[in-house]
Every structure is written in structure tokens, then in C-alpha cells.
# Entry
Amino acid sequence: MARKYNMLQIGGENYAHHFSDRKDVNWVHQPFNSLADVEEIEALMKKQKSFEFVFVQAPYSETLIQVFRLVSLPYNTYVDHQFWNAAFEAEDIVRARMIRPFKYEDEAERLDKLLSLAFSGQYGDHISSRNAVISQSFKGDYYYEGQHTLVMTGDFGDDFQPILSWSMYLYNDSNRVNQFWAEYTATDGVELSYTLRFYETADMPELKATYVLEGDLLKKPFNIPRKDYDAYILVSAKAKGRGTLRVGNLHKRWTRIEYGEFILGGERFHDEARGEFIHYFDPGDLKPPLNVYFSGYRTAEGFEGFYIMRNLKAPFILFGDPRLEGGGFYLGGETYENQIKKVIQDKLDWLGFKDDDLILSGLSMGSFGALYYGAQLNPAAVVVGKPLVNIGDIADNMRLIRPEDFGTSLDILLESEKALDQDAIQRLNNKFWDTLKQSDISNTVFAVAYMENDDYDLTAYQNLLPVLSRQHARVMSRSIPGRHNDDTPTIASWFTNFYHMIMESRFGRVRHERKKSI
# Structure
């Protein structure tokens, strides 16, 4: 049985009838007129434990703040903007739980937003330009650069002309807002237009909706208006002008509209090449350290590590990399990499923490992000499992050690170094090692759980240890027999054990310390 999305309305006219046909939603209305209502909410929370979404239609009062302490989790509570005022903003609980106003133009938009937010989970996927069929009318040159980029050069015409249609479809899920994002770059003078056609059934007897995206509509993700039916999305593209187009992945993901990407509170960034990363910040108990988790390789887009990090009680940031097939190892141009560091520094500043009130962490692909940015940010510790650091070598290993496996490493090599030869392999390796060797990590603890027979990066730990030792870093390690993916549960166990040891020894956080209310 599918889990229901639990929504609580406090005050106002009961909206439950608007959700009567949504079997996946549990809408609970609680009047808010007296202290007796507070007692009812207390009893409700003992039974329900938590709500994913809380909608408040009541003016500021000390009693309402008391209710927030019962029902609010980070990003789950929204106050109707008609009741929002500066008194809310002055409350510590509002800051700590990221309570925000719920804005709308009219009652119809208010209801549409509530309906659009009423779903569980997160999801995102993409289709590659390898699935694109090139129009026979295009007379220019084209070739594939790696697995995810189609390069087209020529005269596309003075007006928009068809150039591509995708043989695979995206899927529009009902009762939520689906978001479309296209990866592409174009030289000056070339413009691109995408057309999205919606069909309710696979045999496509009837066109249900069409959206044409060009110009300003392509500068940010396009939110497809919520529909009450599932639909197949066929995508085609047109271009005009003269020059070169580089066409990449087409992404579709569930969005929480202006309240979050993938999940409530989720955010995204894209650089000038339209390469993205996603991030989420949870204030936790507002006490050091700030824990940062870089997601591993995942073909399904979205956040990873949420419950592991939340269970540590401390503030945390999650990072995800939705580029290529399952991630680009958090490497990018100057804008991309600087923005990752800025997100971390901004949250340290928001919390009022020192620069070293910070732990960076990750597993597998995420270990690269933790180590690479850890060498640049002066953290108290870096905690990693199944470390991957020699990305050039991982790509080189495809020839004999892992044939036809993990082609993403070749895409990263090609994207970063514009070549696949031995010099390019070494340059990509050196991007990591030069960063590490030039850093001051003498006050940083490195906790590493690694596989003894890792078949992706064969010598990662053996290469790391002497460099860390020469720079007077403290190293904690644990080896586990097997190849890269042979024993992830044991790696994950040591990952969390290392976290608890460091948080207790460095920050005085006892593992089973009773949670204190704010």
C-alpha cells in the first residue's frame, strides 16, 4: 500500500473536500480558536507523529508559536500570507524550522498550489541526445562527443527549422508540477526552440497539450502546469542562425514549485554551460558542526543521505550532481566550483559558525567532492567511504579492467580535458592531487573506509595516505575486503561510526544525547 502524504491545516475553512478524490493524501483540518484546540493538536501529534506539510491560517500569537514547536520540521510549515507579519520573523522557531509565508494571487491559485504540493517522495530522470533523431533537412556537420552531447555545426536558417526529435519520451506524472530543463550551449547567432507535446496514451490518438519553449523561457527550468492525468511527452527541437549547437540531456523532475526543488527546501544552481548541482540545507539544532554530504553516483535524480544526516541532529547540507548519466563528480568550471564553496560558506555564516565548524563527507563519487572541496575549505574533518580520486585512471581502467563499464568517467575526462590520451588522463588526476598538495590540512581529520580490492580506483587509499601524512593531517581508516560495490553496508556503518567519533571528540556531541527543544 502506497504511503499517504500527510497534510495538516490549522485554522481557516476546511479544505478536506478538495482532496476527497486523492487517495494518496491524508488531509487533516484542525480549528484554532482556543487553548482546547492546542490540546487537540498535542493529542493529534502523539498519534500522527509528524506531517509533511502544515498550512496555517491563523494570526500571530504566543499560542500559535507553541503549536509550531509541536508540528514544525524544517520547511514543512507555511503561513497564509494574509496572516504573515514581522512578528513571525522575530521568532527563533520560525528561523530554526524555516517557516515561510504561503503566497498566492487569489483563492484559485492558493488551492492549485496546495494540490500541486500534495505528493510523497522525489523523482527525476533524463533522456540523452543519443536518443535524438537528426532531421534529414539538416545539411550541416554533426558528431557525438561522448555519450551525452550532440554537436551540430552549420546554417540552421533564418527562421526556426526542425533539427531534432527524440525517439524516447519523458513522462508527465499527474497531480504534481513536473519540471523540464534542457542542457545545451549555442554560439552567438544560434537560437534553439524546444516543443513539448503531451499525449495521454502510448498510441497517441489525441494531442492533449503543447508547449513551445524558446528565448527567456529557456533561461530557467520550465514548470509544466499541474495536470490531473499522466501523459507521455514527446520532445522536438528547432534552431535558427549560423554556428554551433551542443545539445545535451533533457531532464524531467518533480518540483515543489517555489518552495523547493525535488523536496521542500531543495535548491538548484546552473552555470553558463547549463550544468547543474542541487543542494538542500537543514538547520538541525543550530549547533556545530555543519555536516556536508555529497551524493554518490545515481541515475535517478534527487537528494541522497537525508535521513543519515538528519539523524546526526546537527545542521547539514546535501549536494547532488544530476549531470551526465549519474553525476559529474562535482567538477566543473570556475563558476560551478566556486558556487559549491559559496553555498557552504553562506550557511556557515548564517549559522554563525567558524570556518572549521565543518565536516565534509561522501561515499564513492561523493567522496571525491568531500576530499576535493575539503582541501579548499579548512574543515575540521573529512569523512569518506569507497574513495575515488584518480578519475583519469578510472577512465583508463575501462580498456582492460572494467571494459564497457562506467563510461561516465570517459565523459568527465573528455569534458574536462578535451582529449582521451595519456596526457589528458594525467592532467585530470593532477587536478585533484595539485589541489590537495597545495592545501593546509594539518588541523583536519581524514576518516576513510575503503575496499581492499577496489576495482574502480585501485590505489586511491594507497595514494592518499602518504600525501595526508606529509601534510600532518590526522588519518583514521578502516579497510574492508572486496571490490568497490561488494560490501556497501559495512562501508556505510563505518561511515556513520566515524561521524559519531569525530562529532563527540571534536565538538562534544554525545551520540545518544537527548534532543533539546528550541
Q: What stands out?
A: Residues 513-518 have pLDDT under 50 and may be disordered. The chain has three domains: 5-117, 123-253, 259-507.
